UniProtKB/TrEMBL annotation:
<dbReference type="InterPro" id="IPR011993">
    <property type="entry name" value="PH-like_dom_sf"/>
</dbReference>
<feature type="binding site">
    <location>
        <position position="639"/>
    </location>
    <ligand>
        <name>Ca(2+) 4</name>
    </ligand>
</feature>
<dbReference type="GO" id="GO:0032154">
    <property type="term" value="C:cleavage furrow"/>
</dbReference>
<dbReference type="GO" id="GO:0016042">
    <property type="term" value="P:lipid catabolic process"/>
</dbReference>
<feature type="binding site">
    <location>
        <position position="460"/>
    </location>
    <ligand>
        <name>substrate</name>
    </ligand>
</feature>
<dbReference type="InterPro" id="IPR001192">
    <property type="entry name" value="PI-PLC_fam"/>
</dbReference>
<feature type="binding site">
    <location>
        <position position="458"/>
    </location>
    <ligand>
        <name>substrate</name>
    </ligand>
</feature>
<feature type="domain" description="EF-hand">
    <location>
        <begin position="160"/>
        <end position="195"/>
    </location>
</feature>
<feature type="domain" description="PI-PLC Y-box">
    <location>
        <begin position="510"/>
        <end position="608"/>
    </location>
</feature>
<dbReference type="InterPro" id="IPR035892">
    <property type="entry name" value="C2_domain_sf"/>
</dbReference>
<feature type="active site">
    <location>
        <position position="375"/>
    </location>
</feature>
<dbReference type="Pfam" id="PF00387">
    <property type="entry name" value="PI-PLC-Y"/>
</dbReference>
<feature type="binding site">
    <location>
        <position position="694"/>
    </location>
    <ligand>
        <name>Ca(2+) 5</name>
    </ligand>
</feature>
<dbReference type="InterPro" id="IPR000008">
    <property type="entry name" value="C2_dom"/>
</dbReference>
<keyword id="KW-0378">Hydrolase</keyword>
<feature type="domain" description="C2">
    <location>
        <begin position="597"/>
        <end position="725"/>
    </location>
</feature>
<dbReference type="Pfam" id="PF16457">
    <property type="entry name" value="PH_12"/>
</dbReference>
Length: 746
């Protein structure tokens, strides 16, 4: 007897009812996204055939379709165990029209440019390279996906939460009858990351089942939703200040802003918040804020931990370049480890889209006279130098107009160096800085403001800068210079026998485009002070830099007052791990290069920044809608047991870490109400990091989410903290609720 049962085929009327319900759900979700009746959204919901491209020989037709939640993309697969695959639009970083990915550029003909597009995912998930039947359809796919991604990201926290919870309810409604049984309610609670015992689940169910029908429907489901999403801790805060007939008057709100949030605001500001966030028309007319309006305010940028005034550049950007920390990447071309991982132009794009301002190019002789980039003496794959420069040129100024430094580690022959110079000049054009700003020999760096939209080359130079300005430039086509310090280390780690002080030949064409970032060997601080000019800079391996910071800290700081210093990870970090950049910043080092491809605590800190003693008070109140972890692990329960760790990074005396207790089986709305106090000696250099982990008594805790920012950008009072994945992507709907206060130490 067979144990396989054929699924019963739906009758025509059942199929029509099913399709009608799907259309209704899609309509509701489209309306929630602000895309009601949108032609591109309708196109995605119908779906269509696309050509999936992996290589020149692997090209397959696949059917793609947006599901009714207007968030999940479904596509067919011919894999044995994965006939249908899905991905969320939350996982998409961007959608690129045309042959703008490495794969499409390599495996398709330029004639199909208009038909191609790529879905670029966050993290390490591979790009999806696709080709539509024609340019019009490709445009609709790109336009539709862009609209969904843009509108979803611009929903308020409350709208995102509602969208997610309602769709979880629909998934729990197994028989699709718009009713919820006790069993379905328990399934729903597990979906939203809450584990409750049967008695408590039955109590909630009984409280909401006012009709005593044994199921929840209509207003009963709405009542259950309200019970589930009620923010008790926010209600207490609101109640303390709502002194006008149970609501907050503009005067009450102003009192809250001045007393709790410690903001310098007026009655006019309070009225603006009511106008902006109050959802009840009558309350708004009476210049009052309801609890719903108050919650809306707390979840928007005015209620965020991060000062919205700091979202734009708020520092003085007219100082010399070496007065700034410069976000820097090491071996930027690598997607994974340092020994056998792939090299890709996508790695440059990802780093630049994270606002990296200094990227590294390890250049070697390639086939057919074309220089390539890869990690020498290893098995990493290669990418054409020309293709890397094209990608850098296309994405360098997408997130910032401030200058980008191209750090060249040059291992090429003179002929291929000349071709490198040609590619840099022809591809980067006017954006490439080839001579000093102004007509006279500079005595200091120009400012980031004065270098907007410019590329600076860091590398070896055959002569001093003043020789070029005084027309005393060398006329020979090449010369000899000492090898880059990092290149020598690379050889040392590759067990090559050459001396660390070996010489290389340098093409004049490549030498001439090095202006403000001439690489020189570091001998000592005394030698640098007496012999080096301001634009001559050195690179330091992390161990040497840490040693100098500890034993010659004052001299290191003075060195960095008028020169640039670059720090790079030790060659022994073959797994692309990272070192802590904060001690290097404390010593004034500007270009502290990290492995951007590796999600780590050090990268979280690196993306954070950018003296009077203080006392910093932190109260961790609650969290909302934490995601599940261990989905792929063989664990009996997947509900998280969250704890929160608060970390301070800065000068050694400020480094500290404190954590809450863990909450059993509740990732939806855990509450701690735990207070911590930190003594801060140098607030200007301090970084604040929140880490949320899933507690495990038998193994290492799993990361749920994290957030890092400069202490100088923290807003006091009751604030919501967004949470990011280990790769730095926002976790939709998830967050912490905290109270913060930075005061002068007594």
């Amino acid at each position: 007897m067979s144990c396989l049962h054929k699924r019963l085929k739906k009758t025509k009327s059942e199929e029509e009812a099913f399709l009608e319900k799907a259309r209704r759900i899609a309509h509701e979700n489209g309306k929630r996204l602000g895309l009601e009746g949108d032609a591109d959204l309708k196109f995605l919901l119908v779906g269509g055939e696309l050509l999936k491209i992996r290589s020149s020989s692997w090209k397959r037709n696949r059917f793609f379709k947006l599901q009714e939640d207007c968030k999940t993309m479904w596509y067919e697969s011919h894999k044995t165990f994965k006939k249908k695959q899905t991905f969320s639009t939350d996982d998409i970083e961007s959608v690129r029209k045309g042959r703008q990915s490495e794969g499409l550029n390599k495996h398709t003909d330029p004639s199909v440019e208009e038909m191609c597009f790529s879905i670029i995912f966050k993290g390490s998930k591979k790009n999806l390279d696709l080709m539509a039947a024609n340019g019009t359809e490709a445009k609709q796919w790109v336009s539709g996906l862009d609209k969904i991604i843009h509108n979803m990201r611009n929903l308020s926290h409350q709208q995102k939460s509602e969208h997610w919870i309602i769709n979880c309810m629909r998934k729990a409604d197994k028989n699709a009858d718009n009713k919820m049984t006790l069993k379905e309610l328990k399934h729903f609670l597990r979906q939203v990351n809450v584990e409750v015992d049967d008695t408590y689940a039955a109590e909630i169910f009984k409280k909401c089942d006012t009709s005593n029908s044994g199921t929840l429907e209509g207003e009963e489901i709405k009542h259950f939703y309200n019970l589930l999403t009620d923010r008790e801790e926010v209600g207490v805060i609101y109640g303390n200040y709502a002194q006008t007939e149970g609501q907050m008057s503009s005067k009450d709100l102003l009192n809250f802003l001045l007393t709790e949030q410690r903001e310098k605001v007026s009655m006019e500001d309070a009225l603006k918040l009511i106008e902006k966030y109050e959802v009840d028309g009558t309350a708004k007319q009476n210049e009052r804020m309801s609890k719903d309006g108050f919650l809306m305010y707390l979840h928007r940028e005015e209620g965020s931990i991060f000062n919205p005034a700091h979202k734009q550049v708020y520092q003085d950007m007219h100082q010399p370049l070496n007065h700034y920390y410069i976000s820097s990447s090491h071996n930027t071309y690598l997607m994974e480890d340092q020994l056998k991982g792939p090299s890709s132009t996508e790695a440059y794009i990802k780093a630049l889209m994270k606002s990296c301002r200094c990227v590294e190019l390890d250049c070697w002789d390639g086939a057919n006279g074309e220089p390539v980039i890869y990690h020498g003496y290893t098995l990493t794959s290669k990418v054409l130098f020309r293709d890397a420069i094209k990608a850098i040129n296309a994405y360098a100024f997408k997130t910032s107009d401030y200058p980008v430094i191209l750090s060249l580690e040059n291992h090429c022959s003179v002929d291929q160096q000349k071709l490198m110079a040609h590619h840099l000049i022809s591809i980067l054009g006017e954006a490439l800085l080839t001579k000093p700003v102004g007509n006279t020999m500079p005595s200091d760096f120009p400012s980031p403001e004065g270098l907007k939209g410019k590329f600076l080359i860091k590398g070896k130079r055959l002569n001093k800068l003043d020789a070029a300005l005084n027309n005393n430039n060398i006329t020979i086509e090449e010369g000899t210079v000492s090898e880059e310090d990092e290149a020598a280390d690379c050889k040392e780690n590759g067990h090559k026998s050459k001396s660390k002080k070996s010489k290389i030949k340098l093409a004049k064409a490549l030498s001439d485009i090095v202006v403000y970032c001439k690489s020189v060997h570091f001998s000592s601080f005394e030698h640098a002070k007496d012999s080096q000019v301001f634009y001559e800079m050195s690179s330091f391996k992390e161990s040497k830099a840490f040693n100098l910071a500890v034993n010659s800290g004052t001299a290191y700081i003075h060195h960095n007052i008028d020169k640039l210093s670059r720090i790079y990870p030790a060659g022994s970090r073959t797994d692309s791990s990272n070192y802590n950049p904060v001690p290097m910043w404390n010593a004034g080092c500007q270009i502290v290069a990290l492995n951007f491809q590796t999600p780590s605590k050090e990268m979280h800190i690196n993306q954070g920044p950018w003296l009077k003693r203080k006392t910093f008070h932190v109260m961790v109140i609650s969290a909302q809608q934490l995601p599940k972890v261990n989905k792929d692990k063989d664990k009996h329960k997947s509900i998280v047991d969250p704890l929160v760790r608060v970390e301070i990074y800065g000068v050694p005396a400020d480094n500290a870490s404190k954590e809450t207790h863990y909450i059993d089986n509740n990732g939806f709305n855990p509450m701690w109400n735990e207070k911590f106090q930190f003594n801060i000696h140098v607030a200007e250099l301090a970084l604040l990091r929140f880490v949320v982990e899933d507690y495990d008594s038998t193994s290492q805790n799993d990361l749920i989410g994290q957030y890092c920012l400069p202490l100088s950008s923290v807003q006091s009072g009751y604030r919501h903290v967004p949470l990011l994945t280990k790769r730095g992507d926002v976790i939709c709907s998830a967050g912490l609720f905290v109270h913060l206060m930075l005061v002068d130490a007594q």
